[in-house]
Amino acid sequence: MKITNKYVVEAIVFFSYVLFAMAWVGGTASMQSIMLSLDVHSLASASFISGAVTLAKIVGTFIAAWIAIKLGIKYAFFLSSLLITIGLLTPYAPNYELLLLSRFLMGLGGAFMVVYFNPIVLQFFKAEERATINGINAVAFNIGTAIILWQMQSINQLTGGWQNSLTLFSIFSLVIALLWLLVKFEQPSTATNQQDEVSANYSYSQGLKDRFNWVYGLAYSGILAFYICLFTFYPKAGIVQSKWVIGFGIIGTIFGIIYSKKVPARLPVIRWSGLAVIVSTAIFSFSGLYWLQTLAAITLGFFIFLPVTALVSIPHELPKMTAARITIIFSMFYSISYIISTLILWVFGALVDIHQGDYTWSFILITALSSTLFIGSYFLPETAKKAHAQQKGN
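Predicted structure:
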């Protein structure tokens, strides 16, 4: 039996990443219990796990395109799915080293997977459908995260404990990975022979020389840096409304899908959402009023994710796009973003230490960096006319 229905293919991709998010965030939420079970009490050891995971994201997103070239998209995605299922070791790791390895490999799988969304969408969906599918994929991690943030305790009660819950997430991931092997992936529906030839010739060296790839990654980097700091440092600063960002991020993504489907222009929604992010980041970071910080968190969640559908659709709408080129574009997009956000995370923490626990300068830094999406909108190409021409051609 072969799976050929594109909506079934999309469902497999979508739930693969939702389950990754559930296993990933569920493991993070259970980390205190995991460390206690291993009799590890060092905060440095816990921090090293986070650092190893960040390294996995950087390395994984950068080499994802190379793996896709070697294995093909189908088996590269399958490899990413198998790596995610290694999270099965997390709740039962007999020692700290195996726990670290399981989290690293799982993070590597997630990093691969997020890159492979795009060539899969390019192959299975027509130009006019891609914005919607890109938006759906963009919200997958938030949905998995939201399920854990609001329902982890209930899930643990249902399964009998956090270990059983994490095991169940990994088993479901394995089942979906095996389903993926049934997907028929031999005949690209959107590529011509000429495009295949171009695809084979598009390399990392070309990607590194392509100005678009750098602008694209840098435009997103400030938003990603803020998002990571939001869950890493803001609670320590006494700002606890992070969950509102996640919840309204889902709503923002849904509105973004609807908007991008009706309005072909990509840059206006990116630009004005970027401006809203700067203002709401400043309010969220510096206001001492709980209700105002909550309102800013809601606004942030909505406007961080409102333009995501438009942003991830731009490469799909560039002329003569191929599977190899789009894989390299998103490989660079995520690796550039993660490298910069990791550096910013370190600088953020260093500024807090330098100022004896005062977050003022760190908040100034992250508010300034949240402007990258707004600034980037002036350097990214507008693909509206090109997208319309592609739709007429399909």
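Summary: The CA atoms of residues 142 and 203 lie 32 Å apart.
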